């Protein structure tokens, strides 16, 4: 499984695992009803505790990204387009909110901030 985690990140390990699996599902790298690695397998692969992986899986199940069948394992849920779109927006919302707060602290005008975002958006299209 292509999960990238950082041992030095301030983000808790289970949140990193959770976010990475959500990203794989949303981006279509994991398909509905595809089986996830067992907790033991993934903890070994990522060199982390089973408790960490279990917590990530529990949160994924609680949020509807996966479902678990007793004795069978955990599987990717079928997600609506609405849920996929909401997740993508939520991923951008937090860092964007921090930027808006910083811009307001610096007394930037809303139009200046919007122009900056448009400029950055266009810059990334060029690369």
Automatic annotation (TrEMBL):
Keywords: DNA-binding, Transcription, Transcription regulation. PROSITE patterns: HTH_GNTR. Residues 11-79 form the HTH gntR-type domain. GO terms for molecular function: DNA binding; DNA-binding transcription factor activity. InterPro entries: Tscrpt_reg_HTH_GntR, WH-like_DNA-bd_sf, WH_DNA-bd_sf. This is GntR family transcriptional regulator. It comes from Lentibacillus salicampi.
């Amino acid at each position: 499984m292509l999960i990238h985690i950082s041992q030095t990140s301030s983000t808790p390990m289970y949140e990193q695992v959770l976010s990475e699996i959500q990203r794989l599902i949303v981006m279509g790298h994991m398909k509905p009803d595809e089986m996830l690695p067992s907790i033991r397998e993934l903890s070994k692969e990522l060199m982390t505790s089973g408790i960490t992986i279990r917590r990530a899986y529990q949160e994924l199940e609680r949020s509807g990204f996966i479902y678990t069948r007793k004795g069978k394992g955990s599987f990717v849920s079928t997600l609506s387009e609405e849920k996929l779109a909401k997740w993508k927006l939520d991923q951008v919302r937090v860092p964007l909110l921090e930027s808006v707060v910083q811009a307001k602290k610096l007394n930037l005008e809303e139009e200046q901030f919007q122009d900056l975002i448009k400029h950055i958006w266009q810059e990334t299209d060029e690369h």
